[in-house]
Amino acid sequence: MVLLALACFAIGLAGPVVVRALAGVTGSLAGCAGVSCALPGAMWPLYGLTLLLGCTLLLGLFVAVTRRSLLAGRDVREADTWGCGYTAASARMQYTATSFAAPLTHFFGGILRVIRAGGPVRGLFPEPSQLATRVPDVFEKTLFGRPARWVVARMTVLRKFQHGRMNLYILYIALTLLALMLWKLT
Amino acid sequence: MTMWLQKCPGILLALLLAPAVSGVINKVKALFAGRRGPPVLQLYFDLFKLLAKGAVYSRTTSWLFRAGPVVSVAALISVLLIIPFGGPSLLSFPGDLAVGFYLLAIARFFTVLAAMDTGSSFEGMGASREVQFSALAEPALFLGFAVLIRMTGQFSFSEIFGSMTASTWATQAPALILVAVVLMVVLLAENARIPVDDPNTHLELTMIHEVMVLDHGGPDFALILYASSLKLWVFASWFAGLVVPRGVGSPAASLAATLGGVLLAAVLVGVIESIMARLRLLRVPQLLLGAAALAAVALLLVMK
Description:
The structure holds 2 protein chains of 2 kinds.
Chain A: H1 2-13, H2 15-30, H3 35-38, H4 43-71, E1 76-79, H5 97-107, H6 109-112, E2 115-118, E3 131-134, H7 138-155, H8 166-185
Antiparallel strand pairs in A: 2-3
Chain B: H1 2-33, H2 42-51, E1 55-58, H3 63-82, H4 96-117, H5 121-152, H6 157-162, H7 166-190, H8 209-212, H9 218-243, H10 251-275, H11 284-303
């Protein structure tokens, strides 16, 4: 995973090198050789991108070194996260992924159809209460869930052919070969 | 060599004058309110004060918190490399505008990560709002620039704004006015200005950008303030590149005219902040979608 991420990073930074290396393949597909023929106009933006992102990295390095040298020898301390007067904050109070996405899930509520179970506490002496929300996959639910289930239900009939008996599997192969042979003969 | 000399003043002006833009906005607001207001150079004083300080870090933070301000400044200066200012930009290639938008997104992403790294629920809330509004501002920005791409047939900031002449305004004024309005709305939203966010508020529950940077101090906070002023400059120079047509005279005159355009943007922001109240948070998406709709109308106008 880390290797793949690093490879993405390297491809992003060294676009021209990668494209040049792939030029043979693209050339054979396009029916001519060389990057300029297979991908006309692609090299200059890639060079520009590499130059710009190289500048970004160098600038980042420069700012980081400047920041470090500014703080060297100064009073650098550690303290609690600022809590607006409340000092007993715990990880349970941290913003979760659900809260983080809440404005957008609320905004697109008409499409996402959030499933909500339970609700807020009510009354002066409330009973214990709980709230659970779930955002179902909108595409699975509306687009491919139902046809996929229909196909799966029909295909379960074929399960009986997959029973684990080796002698019958060999018979399938023999019948297939026979069918192919007959097809070739005709 | 002369070409390079022509390209350099824009970025040098940006690096030097960017903090003065918020000073101009504050002066205009003070003028409207009948106050004297802070000096135009106030942000420079703040930056120098902060750069001379030490720092206090939250115990829950990691390297991400320290990387946030550094990445923001580096990404913003990189955007300035591809933005023209009264002349061609230092670096230009077809498609650089998408790179520019996503460099701004990288800066925002790291600010959000730094905010969430503190574990504070306030900062998580600000981060959540920031990404919500920027996700809605992005279509407006892309559609706005799609209009300019369609109009000029170019794919880089330098070429697009280079083709923006007086005759373009003469023939395409309605679409250009709509794009200017869209750019101004996105400027207000992206730079945490009224009516989207109030840069002066200090109530965590209502803040967006400011609440994300509550735990930063000293040089880190100076970097964040500087990055914010560079971001304001970036949007103001896009606005200036649009409303100040090219080809009005010598390179120096063009540079001065674009600087005037940035000043105009700052004055407009000051006026808007003085005459408008902050929108309710639930109304902000409507403003941003309205801007996107205006950009779509402008696109229809140029596609006919």
